[in-house]
């Protein structure tokens, strides 16, 4: 467009593209966290019905995924 003498801002260009449904959204990379189709045994919930009489009887944890040097790694919380 510059060669033809038209000058528009980036914001205007993206507005035109969005109005005409010409924008393509970038796909976010994500870690696959669940593989439900497997042969492994499903373990029962051991804390169901647990009676909490005092603090520190039960500790739980969770994991999350973070990107380190372009790859996913586990972070345990």
TrEMBL record:
Task: Tell me what this protein is called.
Answer: HTH-like domain-containing protein
Name the species this protein comes from: termite gut metagenome
